[in-house]
Amino acid sequence: MRALIALIMLTTALPAAAQSVVVSEAAENVSLTVYRAPQRGGRPINKNWPQGYALITETRTVNIPAGESVIRFEGVSEGMFPESAIVTGLPEGVREKNQDARLLSPAGLVDAYLKRQVTVQRTNLATGKMTSQTAMITTGPNGVILQTGDGYEALRCTGLPERMVYGGVPKGLSAKPTLSVITQSEKAISAELTLTYLSAGFDWQANYLVQMQDEKATSEGEAALPKHKASLFAWLTLANGGSQSFANANTMAIAGEPNRERRRAQARPTGKALTLKCWPMQRTHQVPFFLPYDLSDEEENERMDGAMEMRVMPAPPPMIAPPPSPAPVAAIKAQQEDIGDLKLYRIPERVNVNAKGQKQVAMITQPDAIFDRVYFASAVTYNSDNQPFGIKLRGKNDDEGGLGLPMPSGQIQVFEGSNFGPLLVGETNIKDLAVGQKVEMIVGSSTDVRRTIKKMSERGRKQNWRVEIANARSEPVNVEVELPANYSGKTMRVRKVDGVPTWIGIIPAGGEISFNYVLKRPKK
Description:
By secondary structure, this protein is mostly beta strands. Among the domains are: 106-165; 206-241 and 322-370 and 394-439, no CATH class. 5% of the residues lie in helices and 48% in strands. The protein contains three helices and 30 strands. The protein has helices at 2-13, 106-112, 297-305, and strands spanning 20-24, 29-35, 52-64, 67-74, 79-80, 86-88, 96-100, 117-123, 130-139, 145-148, 151-154, 162-165, 178-185, 189-217, 227-240, 246-255, 335-339, 342-346, 351-353, 357-378, 387-396, 410-416, 423-430, 438-459, 462-471, 477-482, 487-488, 494-497, 500-507, 512-520. It has a 21-stranded mixed β-sheet that branches. It has a five-stranded antiparallel β-sheet with strand order 11-10-9-8-12, with no helix packed on it. It has a four-stranded mixed β-sheet with strand order 1-4-13-7, with no helix packed on it. It starts with a helix and ends with a strand. The model is unreliable at 4-8, 10-16 and 297-311 (pLDDT under 50).
């Protein structure tokens, strides 16, 4: 019994074995798969903090000692979802995971030293002498207010060079976002570990450039109007909103909408800069006023005298329209692959995805796309007088239309040639388009093609309306006019377009045309 008690006391008195800390400073190999922000629609990428996410896989070689150890994976993505992290290659797996999200930064230091004392050092500009003063941080980091023996003041508002000196690095602040795991090993080994996790702060989108060509494509059938050729080019734009760069990364992008459940928003790490604010001490009449520009004496005299000099400028030489700009040359082009119902775009070479930056590579190059130019309007806007028609380019995503490949959603800019080079004529967005679907791009409005809609008569529940269309262009145009849903009657040239009754016709150059339709109001 005494031996047993002595053994228990001896076991209790022995100190616990200390954990070894192993630091992995950077990954040796990185793969990055970026998913678009769900529900973003046609809005541009949020540059401050992209709302998409990425699947990141890192490979690291780590020397693991015998016994229990803490392995610190430094330089992981700032927006890591720690619950998604998977570590493989450990001899006995992971016992515990921890994420160090408080970053060592100006804002992080001020936040950690809030209501604590620091030393403020100031340098006299005249003598170069530096003085030190003890102060307490009362507010920060968005506007730092210090309390000293002289009262309250804002940081760096005295006009003298000054800085804050801290007593040490606060516990819990890390220079890089870090994931630490606790593991066990029977013997010391060198292991190749794979760390896989999801991270917020990424996004991607397709950016299309459509350059209209002067060359016309042949057309057949009822639409005796020529079709328009265009070169279509698309950039794959990747955005990294975090403070970590991924060098020499195998990079991919996923098009489509994976079924991903929502998670609660997490606070971003504290690795930010300080926001400093100063408040003026003078009264209004003490603040100097300066004109936004200076007038010389000569200019002032000319302005006061009202003198004007007329100069006859020589006529400029006639402008010669330059040839249409060629499509951008794709040095690297993302390769499309199928992954279930989604599309994967793989960049064939390893690239650097820099922190707080964007990366663009070519995605689609279709130099011979074909589009119809359609002038469209709606007759739902009653009693409109001499209103312009909108313009849209319409094509089909197939081989005959010069496309024939999946088109991820994104922003489109349409250019036409002019005497001054390519001219932007319209910007719009498209949704994900599969092969065989219709492609439509709204590119502005035309003052040369106008319509007037007016009510001619009304009898009982029936109203007679008239649409008058005038084409002032020197060429015929395709026109489509959407009619109200309660349209009735047998108006010629009306058919359903995307479920909407639409009048379709060709207006000759300099010509006019009109048609009537009947509305039947519902019973009260």
